[in-house]
Amino acid sequence: MDKIESSPKYGWYMNKTCKILLIFAVSIATLMLIGTIVGISIDAIGDGVTESVIGIYATLLIVAIFADIIWSYFLIRQYVFEYKIKLWEKDFVKLYAKVETGYGDDKIVEGLNFVVVYKFRYDKQEHIIKGGTLCDRFGVTKASKLIGQRVPIFYSPTYDEVVFIKEIAE
What is the pLDDT of residue 106? Predict the structure, then answer.
């Protein structure tokens, strides 16, 4: 799994450092959530609850809940990706895919729905895998810089899934 970089379906594969930081973020958000609930309980018992204290606790509670949900989502998604890779790697075949552009299935804005398309041949059949868009809200994606190149992939014929490898294409 050290060679795997990403997947069109699951996105970027995190290394151990990123996973540890994500686990740390989930832990901090969970502790913040628990601390806020304990703080609310303690103040509810006492007489000194003011509107400003209630506002602070409500804000902390909302932030903690959203942070916990968001970071937990990314962590669970990563573990699902790892599980899927373990299934797929049983019959991985190393191939090279040509990176091209194509049209996405979503017709949000006509003419602006270009996606990255990966074409490769396996068992005398051409396979086409649609990836992400050429641009995201942060600018040009890494995949768009690979247009016209051949990139190394692992293909699982049983599951019809592709993962990208951390190698320079030949």
Answer: 53
Q: How far is CA 43 from the centre of its chain?
A: 39
Number of neighbours of residue 18 by Cβ within 10 angstroms? 13
| pTM, full prediction | 0.70
Q: Which stretches of the chain score pLDDT less than 70?
A: 1-2, 44, 46-49, 102-114, 132-144, 167-170
Phi/psi of residue 7, each to 5°?
Answer: -145, 145
- CB-based contact 4:154 (threshold 8 Å): yes
Looking up tokens 């270009």, which residue turns up? 114
CB-hemisphere CA count at 13 Å for 142?
Answer: 9
Alpha-carbon span 94 to 74, nearest angstrom: 28
Structure tokens at 27: 């832990």
Q: Which SS3 state, helix, strand or coil, does residue 80 take? A: helix
User: Strand 150-156 and strand 161-165: pairing?
Assistant: antiparallel
In DSSP terms, 148 is beta-bridged to: none
Distance between CA atoms of residues 149 and 99, nearest Å: 6
Query: What is the three-class DSSP state of 160?
Result: coil
pLDDT digits (tens, 9 = 90+) for 34-52: 888 887 777 767 666 677 7
Strand 4-7 and strand 161-165: pairing? Answer: antiparallel
pLDDT for 142: 62
